[in-house]
Amino acid sequence: MTIGVEDASTVQGAPVQQVTLGWFLRRSLLGLVILAVAMGGLAWLTYASIDPDLDGDLSTKARHGALPAARVVPVDL
Question: In sequence order, what DSSP letters do the residues of 5-37 get, joined into one string?
Fold first, then answer.
């Protein structure tokens, strides 16, 4: 059995979407909105992960008695 040119099906190309200025601007705006939301969420999560008890200078809190004094226990060797 041989296959000839007549037996081959015709190939139809998919229509290519034309890139217009409006399409490009809409896609760019959508990308910038997604980027801004992602960076805003990242900044908010980073800010929310900061422990307010550990914020600032620890030595001033120790002077005012906010931190308990360290107890030194001698070790017998």
Answer: GGGSPPP-PPPPPP--HHHHHHHHHHHHHHHHH
